[in-house]
Structures are given as structure tokens and as C-alpha cells.
Amino acid sequence: MSVRLEELGACFQGLFPALMATCSADGEPNVTYLSQVQYLDPGRVALSCQFFNKTKRNVAENPYAAIELYDPRTFEAYRLRLRFDHAETEGPLFDAMATRIQVIATHTGMAGIFRLLSADVYEVLAAERVEGFLLPPEEAPAPPCAAPVDGPLTELRGLSVISDRIARAEDLDSLLAGTLAALDELFGFAHSMVLVPEDGGTRLVAIASHGYGDAGIGAEIALGDGVIGAAAERRRMIRIAGVGAELRYSRAIRGRVEAVGERARLAPEVPLPGLADAQLQLALPLVAGHELIGVLAVESRDPLAFDEWDEAFLQIVGSQIALGIDRVSERSQEEEEGGPVRRRAAEVAPPPTCPPGRCELVYYRNDDVVFADGEYLVRNVPARILWKLLRQRREEGRTEFTNRELRLDPALGLPGYKDNLESRLILLRKRLESKCPSIRMVPVRRGRFALDVTCALELVERDSG
What we know:
Elements: E1 18-23, E2 29-34, E3 37-41, E4 44-49, H1 53-61, E5 64-70, E6 77-88, H2 92-107, E7 118-129, H3 155-168, H4 172-187, E8 191-198, E9 203-210, E10 220-222, H5 226-234, E11 238-241, H6 243-259, E12 280-288, E13 291-300, H7 308-335, E14 358-364, E15 369-372, E16 375-379, H8 380-396, E17 400-402, H9 403-407, H10 421-435, E18 439-445, E19 448-453, E20 456-462
Parallel strand pairs: 14-20
Antiparallel strand pairs: 1-2, 1-5, 3-4, 4-7, 5-6, 6-7, 8-9, 8-13, 9-10, 11-12, 12-13, 14-15, 15-16, 17-19, 18-19
């Protein structure tokens, strides 16, 4: 039965590898697996070319091929009959297909080895469903009709709620927490995080997360690595389904590289921030003007949880988040002194009960990192901020501090314009809550906070050795 390519959207998600068959001029067949088949238009597809020397030779001699695709929802098979048109080694199509492979390669230490050689464009001569691939379904009683839900929340109303939360947010923390919670409550994005540039823009660190508990805050990834790092580096949305299968395939190639004595060419594997068993990842850059503000990342254990509608919707939300972050940061910098009282220290709930004793905090000067009782706490600018606060508390007896004095301290290394101080303070506060609850940063009023310590502190400075 003939089908239209537009009807096979789920087959192009890459959840199941496609089979490709070619034949040489003298009639010798070859069958291999494909990692990517990308829909281009109603008459063309693009296939990824990585290690397929035999396939390339066959197509050069005989430009006809056949591929078999599988629908991950119904498990039906579809066969496309193709004729080779041309190969692309640069340009938008090549970049889009290469990004998917690059994302997986960076996680498994295979960057530069596991890579796209070309995006091969084929004309689709015929597309048909493979009859008899599945057994006929057994007859089952029709399920009872679900009662209609009164007043369904439409996408437009949901977007209105999220926009309202962003517009009404008084600070960066409430903006991000409220937005991520709304994405879950209204649209089912149960796992999400916002990461911002750190360490001169070479890394991204999570300052807000939803669905991960305490584990999400402080998650880091290098610029260019994985879905999140690639989205930041390329300033474009990236969505990859079937992450688990892609990682297994890349690790299999890695194993073969190691087996032939080429281990020295491989980099260490990069742990994925977020769910260890995620099957679908989507990341989009948060950009205000020409400046990268951060990255919004969502993921799911369901490889078909997001589709093209989700991409379009999240792009709208992402633009509003970026503008909201920019607005809140500028307003905070302008009004941090003399702003209205938000919360008094006495109004904040008491800290968790801590066992009596001491807490040892060690600042490693060479690495710009702080450890609390032997466990990593925070690094770079947040580490320098924390150490400044703790030393002034010990040496001067101070308990209250202002954002302004932090901005004016050259030793902290903040940039003169759009220093992201608020995001760094959020990260520091949440890391303390999670890893060292006996030290709290308590808001007093806009631009001013108190340092509340409920145990004896031992401050140690060391050089890394």
C-alpha cells in the first residue's frame, strides 16, 4: 500500500535504526543500518553517511537503494525505494544532521571519530507499507468512552498563564521556579532546567531545575558538549530522540576503537546532566539581542513525548524567559539599593536542625573551588563570593551584605556589564541549602541579604597539590 512521506513523521525520529540495502554493478548486495533518515520534502530524504565504504561504492556504481523504516508507536514497517541525487558536506542540512552525531559523540568521548562524513540526498521513487510485517491484531472490546473534561485548558490559555508569571516575577529565582513549574502543571514537561554561562562562557551551570529534587542545581556541562552545550554553542534549538540507543551505538564504536589499540584518541565520557535514563532531550538557547542568556533544557523518558508543536511552543516560552531574565537583572541592578522590603530575616522559616559541631570549608585557590566537609560545594565566581562573605563574617563580624558591594569588588572578577550576579547568588544559595544547610543566605530586602550560620565554621585556604 502506497503512503505519503508526510505521514511517516514518527519513523524519522531515529528511535529504531533503519535498514539500507544497496547493490553493486555486478549484482552483489549489501545491507547496513542507518543512524539517521531525515525528511526533506514530499519527494526527498537525506541519509547519514559515516562509515559505510561498501554502501558508498555500491551507490557510485548503481544509484538505486531501498530503506526500511519502523514506526515506534505501531511497529509497522515502511519501505522506501530511492535514487541517489547528491551528497552535501557543508551547509544547513549537513550541519543539522552532524549536530545530532556530535552531541552523542561528545558524551562518549568520540568527538572527531564518530562523525558525519556527508548528508546524502535521495529522491524517493516509491513509499509503501510492508504488508504482513505484523500479525493481525486480536479483537478486543472497545474501551469505555472517557467523560469529557469541562473547560479544557487550551495551549493559548496555558501560554497566557506562563507569560503572566514571567511578567509578575519580582526576582530571578521566582521567575525561573514559577515558569518551570507552570511548564509541568500545564503542559507536562516534568523535567526541566535552566542553565547559564559560567567560567567565561566555557561552561553552563544549572541555576533552576524542576523534577530533579536537589540533584539538578549545580549540574554542569561544557560549551559544545551534549544537547545542552551544542544548543548554546550553535544558538539553535536541538531535539534528539532515542538518546539511549544512540549512546549504545556510539559506545560500541568506542569499544572497537579501543580494541584496535587507539584508546589514546578517545576522550573521557561526559556524564549527562539530568535523567540518567532520558530517551528524549530538547534544549534551546535563551537569547536577548545578540547575547546568550542561558539554555532551557527539557527531557523525558518517553522518546515520543515532544513533537514539532512542543518545539514551536518552547521557542516562544524561551524568548519570554530570556527577556524576563534580562529585565529582572537590569531592574535589580538599578534598584538594589533602597528597594521595597521583600522579606525580613525573622520572617524566614528556621533552618533544618543541624548536629552540634564544626563545619570545615576549604577554598582551593588554584582551582577556585570550595569544599564543605570534604564534599564539593561550588566553584569559580560563586566560590569567590562565598569565601569573601565568610572571611568578612569572621574578621569583621558582619552578617549583612549587599549586591552592590559584590559588584564593586574587583577581586570577584565580575564583568562590568550584565554580570549575572543574581544567577550566581541563586546558585550559591541553593547549593548551600542542599550541601551545607547550616549556612544560609537570607533575603532582607532588594539587593541585601544576611548570612545566617548555625554551626562553628573552620575556614581553610589551600593550594591544589
